[in-house]
Amino acid sequence: QVHVVESGGGLVQAGGSLRLSCVASGRTFTIYGMGWYRQAPGREREFVARMLWPDSSTEYLDSVKGRFTISRDNAKDTVYLQMNSLKPEDTAIYYCATHTTLGGAIYWGQGTQVTVSS
User: Fold this and answer.
1) Which residues neighbour 91 within 8 Å (Cβ) at sequence distance 6 or greater?
2) Count of alpha carbons within 13 Å of 61, Cβ hemisphere only?
3) pLDDT tens digit string along 55-109?
4) 8: which DSSP letter?
5) Euclidean distance between CA atoms 36 and 44, whole angstroms
6) Ranked by mean pLDDT, which of 18-22, 27-31, 71-75 comes out on top?
7) Are 2 and 28 in contact, with CB atoms under 8 Å apart?
8) Is the dihedral of CA 12, 43, 34, 23 positive or negative?
9) How far apart are CA 17 and CA 68, in angstroms?
10) Beta pairing partners, 105
């Protein structure tokens, strides 16, 4: 089992920045990638950013490219999402997802609220 905890959300004005953190614990040796997803009120959860361990390759939602950066601290089983030039449409609950080899299971955190005011 892998446990996931996100932090770093908050309220910022448009154009501001936030850095989200995601810490994994438990059977972290089973992890082959981690990513960020978000869900706005009344909307479906959507992919934001992801990194795969073998080559540290990254992938981003088109609308956040150039503004968001995902990074990894391997020694601490932690990933970050640096969010710059935030827009009101970025407002959502942000969830960290941990991809594992445990039958292909994905473990989710509880989410952290990001609110961007105009």
Assistant:
1) 40, 114, 115, 116
2) 16
3) 999 999 999 999 999 999 978 899 999 999 999 999 999 999 999 998 889 999 9
4) -
5) 14
6) 18-22
7) yes
8) positive
9) 10
10) none
Token reading at 57 = 């390759």
- pLDDT value, residue 74: 79
CA distance 104 to 101: 5
Give the integer Cα–Cα distance in Å for 11 and 85: 14
Match 């999402």 to its residue by tokens.
Answer: 81
Structure tokens at 77: 């089983």
Token pair for 67:
């503004």
CB 116 within 8 A of CB 94: no
Token pair for residue 32? 């082959």
